[in-house]
Amino acid sequence: MGQPLEWGRRYLMVRPDHFRIDYVINPYMSTQDQPDPALTLKQWESLRQAIVDAGGQVEVLAQRADSPDMVYAMNLGLAAADGRAMLSHMRFDPRRKESLSAAEWFAGHGFRLDRIGGEGVGPHFESGDAFVFGDSLVVGYGPRTEADALKHLATGWNLRVRGLRIAHEGMYHLDLPFCPVDSTHAMVYPPAFDAASQAELSGIVPDPIVLTDEEAFAFTANSIVVGETIIMPACSPRLREVFEGLGLRVVVLDLSEFHKGGGSARCLTNPLDFPLAPITVPGGELLLPA
Asked: Is residue 21 part of a domain?
């Protein structure tokens, strides 16, 4: 039995006042399938309230009118409990203005800002690809985050970084096929990764909860754990039994309007309390799939 996660009690969310589909940058998006504004806000508020009800804290950042995807707050930057924040350097130009507001918010709330490659001109890094789990910062790379960004994370912050190469276009961020549940359990969808990365998963996750195709593409791994509660956009009977067996209270929310943009509960929430001390290594250490 794993121990509860040390993080996931404090989140940044972006109120979806300007959420819409203006362009297509993932397989789930279509400009012909626009979110309903009233239902979108209702679903977002249900997620915010569920976090509070579970004992979590939510900070809210206003959405830029020129950044319709900014509601997916997980990608604004990697925030640590010690007060550091690594801003994302988005791959796609339509999302890069989000970093302007993110930088202002993080700085205004006492975070010390860093950028991959200096002023964001280096390799792309999107924080939806990064999770503290076990003895490492686990980082997905390929579709959005570039492999060179992992070097900057390791050496810049003196961290042990373990990379997993994402090879499935429908799982373009790590927060879609990988979800930490406690200190030893994580939901994983192995087909999201190349063969070498699949082989590495067993060394990263002692107790994997392997998702079926149907579970994975219902955004099941795009869930969050707040204390003893797991908040999910979908949960099969099989998984409910697993999570309740781990002592978790399962809360399932309808977040379908946000699925139109390719994200769900995890994408909408940026944890502000990742603990870096347990994964700190002098000089940094980068471990990539063989």
From this structure: yes
Q: What length does the chain have?
A: 290
| Residues 6 or more apart in contact with residue 66 via CB below 8 angstroms | 18, 97
* Number of structural domains in the chain: 1
- Domain limits for position 21: 10-274
Question: What's residue 290's pLDDT?
Answer: 86
285 found inside a domain: no
What is the C-alpha to C-alpha distance for residues 215 and 213, in angstroms, rounded to an integer? 6
Residues 6+ apart with CB under 8 A from 16: 35, 40, 41, 44, 63, 71, 258
Rounded Cα distance between 113 and 211, Å, is: 36
pLDDT tens, 44-87?
999 999 999 999 999 999 999 999 999 999 999 999 999 999 99
pTM for the whole thing?
Answer: 0.97
The residues near 44 (Cβ < 8 Å, ≥ 6 apart) are 13, 15, 16, 71, 258, 268
Q: What is the mean pLDDT of the chain?
A: 97
Q: Per the domain annotation, does 1 fall within a domain?
A: no
Assign 120 a pLDDT band (cuts: 50, 70, 90). Answer: low
Q: What is the mean pLDDT of residues 23-49?
A: 98
CA separation for the pair 14, 182 (Å, rounded): 26
Structure tokens at 144: 């959005």
- The per-residue pLDDT for range 82-117, each reduced to its tens digit, is 999 999 999 999 999 999 999 999 999 999 999 987
Residue 289 resides in a domain: no
Question: CATH no. for residue 223?
Answer: 3.75.10.10
Q: Which two tokens stand for residue 124?
A: 């792309």
